[in-house]
Amino acid sequence: MTQYFQIHPQNPQARLVRQAVEIVRGGGVIAYPTDSSYALGCHIGDKTAMERIRRIRGLDDRHDFTLMCRDLSEVAVYARVGNADYRILRACTPGPYTFILPATREVPRRLQNPRRKTIGLRVPAHGIAQALLAELSEPLMSVTLILPGEELPLAEPQDIRERLEHQLDLVIDGGNCGWEPTTVVALADGVASVLRRGKGDAGPFLSGPSL
């Protein structure tokens, strides 16, 4: 049976955050709020949990997962970030952007794009997501919570609970955080390419090679 934690989005209860992270470390799959929409998350090193997420989402093995990171220093552990790329990241994080960058050896091969050897990374601007990442002390492997056949992410935690009661280990209720996914931007030597327009303002990336 899925556990259900009501956590305050601005002042997350430390006890509940610790319990949520224990579930992740124990191989659990969780639904949690971000600054763009709800996401599914699991431990970066847990292949079984990752496959559970694939089944929930109906994903094939070519779908790109995202690493939720605490800050830019953590991003730099898992991606190769040049000086020009760093300036763009610094201007846009934390926020509702996912950046596609070349992966380092710290990223398990199964998480990388098989052809380009890239990985998606983001630094969320949401109190609960940040509290989870701080307690976990490493990235949270994540995908947007969009169910097969649907166009928009689930936005209501009670709805998530009812529809995924037997497929998740935990639903974190942080209130309705919206349904608009992140803006996805590929970075290469300071040149930004918008792959998907979402909640983050894409305008700065469309007007020139850098911010």
Overview of this structure, please?
With 211 residues, the chain is an alpha/beta fold. The chain has one domain: DHBP synthase (Alpha-Beta Complex), CATH 3.90.870.10. Helix content is 29%, strand content 23%. It is built from seven helices and ten strands. A ten-stranded mixed sheet has the order 1-8-2-3-7-4-6-5-9-10, sandwiched between helices. A hairpin with a 2-residue loop joins strand 9 and strand 10. The relative contact order is 0.24.
Based on Cα principal axes, name the global outline: globular
Q: How many structurally independent domains?
A: 1
CATH topology: DHBP synthase
Name given to the CATH homologous superfamily: DHBP synthase
Residue fraction in strands: 15-25%
Instruction: Give the mean pLDDT.
Output: 92
Précis, in short:
This protein has a ten-stranded mixed sheet with strand order 1-8-2-3-7-4-6-5-9-10, sandwiched between helices. The chain has seven helices and ten strands.
Secondary-structure map with pairings?
Elements: E1 3-6, H1 14-25, E2 30-33, E3 38-43, H2 47-57, E4 66-68, H3 72-78, H4 83-92, E5 97-102, E6 118-122, H5 127-136, E7 140-144, H6 157-163, E8 170-173, E9 183-188, E10 191-196, H7 203-206
Parallel strand pairs: 1-8, 2-8, 4-6, 5-9
Antiparallel strand pairs: 2-3, 3-7, 4-7, 5-6, 9-10
Helix pairs in contact: 1-5
